[in-house]
Amino acid sequence: MRYSGWRIIREALTGNRGWAPVWRDPEPKSAYDVVIIGGGGHGLATAYYLASVHGLRDVAVLEKGYLGGGSVGRNTTIVRANYYLPGNSEFYSHSLKLWEGLERELNYNVMHSQRGLINLFHSDGQRDAFARRGNAMVNQGDDAILLDREGVRELLPYLDFGQVRFPIRGGLYHPRGGTARHDAVAWGYARGADARGVDLIQNCEVTGIDVEGGGVTGVQTTRGPIRARKVGIVTAGRSGQVAAMAGLRLPIESHVLQAFVTEGLKPVIDHVVSFGMGHFYISQSDKGGLVFGGDLDFHASYAARGNLPMAEHVMEAAMTLMPVIGKARVLRSWGGIMDMTPDGSPIIDRTPVGGLYIDCGWCYGGFKAVPASGFAFAHLLAQDRPHPTAEAFRLDRFATGRGLMDEEGTGAQHNLH
Ligand SMILES: Cc1cc2nc3c(=O)[nH]c(=O)nc-3n(C[C@H](O)[C@H](O)[C@H](O)COP(=O)(O)OP(=O)(O)OC[C@H]3O[C@@H](n4cnc5c(N)ncnc54)[C@H](O)[C@@H]3O)c2cc1C
């Protein structure tokens, strides 16, 4: 069924009886060409591009819960292409271009809103670093404007420009950055994959990976064994546990990231804003809630829920940047599990087990990567060679030390990226 404005009017006039379920609920078959483990954003996008670009339709996505119930439905929805290092820069640039055509491609409203992203700076050193980053972005073909203090004040008059500890000296403005509706991205890719024959199987946890003679032969699941020629692990925060089923030890630590939303308010924040002196960032949803978050929890955990010390830390940063937020009431907070690599950059690669592939290490920035990651992982699964935009995301860089991409310059400490 194609969606359109006319369709909505027709359904409204005929009692909304013509809508069909957006995807089927198939029983798992005993074998597939390709099995994708994980029905989050990356798994669903991979399945969609396997079918739409490479014509591979004997594909199943196995999801232990419901589609989109992981971090793809828990993030703060920021989409940007403001990376500095070669390897990351071209990949995220490609992703933003895919975002710009995504609604038309999927015939689905993902509410992509290019409202602009502003990263604030507070010292001369930070200004220099942001100028360098902005030049790298422009060099890559993306957009960046260095704003001075008055330029920031014009766009964001509600910030506290009087505070002396972290004075706002300016910001790096990325006009094509913005937000998208996270669940809709999962649903849109799921609908597109299902329509092309991919089996999306929910409540199907993978409990084992079958390996014979150094190659993968299938998976064990809570709904029975399934044979497969190729298996892709796309389980984000659970990647370490799932890869261990095939005897692999990944260079990943899982940490919790928390977010918060206030009651609905009239429009006050038109952009996405991030505070350069604390890991705090904020935007306003279309419903009016102020959506914000901050640092990762410092200890490793698989608990997809937040805790009060981190809530206090984020609220302090919020009040420092924009005291006006103190008047808003927080409605909800939640947490998601982040798959943190030692250099803060992702992995899209084959594994040492034949026929077993992995797409993980998205840290706290994997939502904006969903289109390009799905595109590149589908290419790798279908053609057995990396897509040119993702050649740098090799698994062996952590063993050899060659080709590390440490955007933050924080060294090999997972939780600091
Ligand atoms: C609070 C928060 C804020 C964030 N903000 C942003 C942001 O603003 N911008 C941005 O770009 N990124 C952001 N992120 C990061 C982003 O959400 C993640 O990097 C990305 O969603 C991870 O990829 P995914 O969607 O495939 O993961 P998920 O949605 O977690 O998908 C993985 C799936 O695998 C399934 N699974 C796990 N184990 C098994 C198994 N054994 N068998 C079957 N299925 C299994 C899980 O149930 C899950 O559905 C944020 C994350 C959080 C938590």
UniProtKB/TrEMBL annotation:
Location relative to the cell: Cytoplasm
EC code: 1.5.3.24
One GO CC term, this protein: cytoplasm
Cofactor needs: FMN; FAD
Keywords assigned: Cytoplasm, FAD, Flavoprotein, FMN, Nucleotide-binding, Oxidoreductase
PROSITE patterns membership: RHODANESE_3
Catalysed reaction equations from the record: sarcosine + O2 + H2O = formaldehyde + glycine + H2O2; sarcosine + (6S)-5,6,7,8-tetrahydrofolate + O2 = (6R)-5,10-methylene-5,6,7,8-tetrahydrofolate + glycine + H2O2
Gene3D superfamilies assigned to the protein according to its UniProt record, in alphabetical order: D-Amino Acid Oxidase, subunit A, domain 2, FAD/NAD(P)-binding domain
GO MF, one annotated term: nucleotide binding
BP-aspect Gene Ontology terms: tetrahydrofolate metabolic process
Pfam family, one: DAO
Rhodanese domain sequence ranges: 34-78
Protein family according to the UniProt entry: Belongs to the SoxB family.
Protein's UniProt name: Sarcosine oxidase subunit beta
Protein species of origin: Histidinibacterium lentulum
Lineage summary: Bacteria, Pseudomonadati, Pseudomonadota, Alphaproteobacteria, Rhodobacterales
